[in-house]
Amino acid sequence: MFNFSASFPNSRPRRNRQNKAILNLLTQHHLLPSNLILPLFVVEGQNIAEPILALPDCFRFSPDLIVKKAKEAYQNQIYAVMLFGVVPETLKCETGKEAHNSHNLICQTIKKIKEEVPEILVIADVALDPYTSHGHDGVINQKQEILNDETVEILCLQALTLAKAGADFVAPSDMMDGRIGKIRSFLDSNSYQNVGIFSYSAKYASNFYGPFRHAVGSANNLKQAHKKSYQLNYCNNKEAFLEIALDINEGADAVIVKPAIAYLDIILQASQNIALPIFAYQVSGEHTMLKLLAKHSNLDFYQLCFEHLIAIKRAGAQAIICYSAIEIAKWLKSQN
Ligand code: PBG
Fold it and tell me: N or C: which end of the chain has fewer CB within 10 A?
């Protein structure tokens, strides 16, 4: 790989960096708007755009405005949106029943998007945390333990409900064992073979999810509790590959690594060793970190964010879930 026979002055690597044309010619990795997936937070109501204080420049939108955003995304060559519901406290319960109510907010929103922007892919999150009174992704017993198999049964109902509403892909972000296989066969036995599964296989128990939990309103419910009994330990890399292998065997169509920038080792190894597409999630804390740095140090947010996104692509991710997807897509266009 490395050519040690070259030496200065015959070799002057700067010759390949001396102007814009040669820099452009030799650029190895590119970021396209179509590499981005836009996550959106949905609230009940009409004409609502509520700024999310913890997540700069992001909003909770009512379904009518979500449709507008989806249109704007599509017009900017972003071909997928990912939906998260912000559920009123009155609809939350111990077992997150609202998650599989076929008239729930997410189902209504999926239908609206499919009516008005049918070309865009709708990816629906599968997990109970927006719907549970305790803020966990699964059901719990009196000892506060997360019950795996009981949760998976509910997740299957949630996934089917989302598929029936018109979701193109479901994205289980709960990290229960065995859920991909169970969801796959449940969808298949209900004739939804064409609804795919993007699995959060390597989802770490990260501190960088903080702003998201404020955005969906699970932070107050979760209080001091943590998710370390189901999300991965960030001191480890091996178990990520066990999770990825299991999810591939169980029928995942793509695997997601989350968060992104602190987990490039996982993305790189996964992309070199598996044949399925790898996605990365630039999570809420990463987004906020860049927004605040830009503001605090008077730096260009787009340049900062682009550097992170291209690093994630360089590591081997095919697509990136990114809160600033539309802004970045517009900026990319303005750079040409
Ligand atoms: C929960 C879920 C989380 C995120 C997406 N789905 C947070 C968590 O596990 O508590 C985080 C995304 C982000 O931080 O942007 N199912």
Answer: N
Rounded CA gap, 104 and 92, in Å? Answer: 12
- Whole-number pLDDT of residue 2: 67
Which residues form the catalytic set?
203, 258
| Closest protein CA for atom 5 of ligand 1 | 173
Name the CATH architecture for the domain at 30-334. Answer: Alpha-Beta Barrel (3.20)
Q: What is the CA radius of gyration of the chain?
A: 21
Residues 282 and 268 sit within 8 Å (Cβ to Cβ): no
Contacts of 77 (CB under 8 A, 6+ apart): 32, 33, 34, 329
Q: Is the CB of 200 under 6 A from ligand 1?
A: no
Instruction: Sketch the domain layout of the chain as residue ranges.
Output: 30-334
**Ligand 1 contact, 284 CB (< 6 A):** yes
Q: How many CB atoms lie within 10 A of CB 147?
A: 15
Choice from 129, 131, 223, 263 to test ligand 1 binding pocket (greatest atom count within 8 A of CB): 129
DSSP-derived secondary structure for 198-259: EEEEEEB--GGGHHHHHHHT-HHHHTT---TTTSBPTT-SHHHHHHHHHHHHHT-SEEEEES
Candidate from 173, 201, 216, 321 with most ligand 1 atoms within 8 A of CB, to mutate: 173
Taking the model in full, what pTM does it have? 0.97
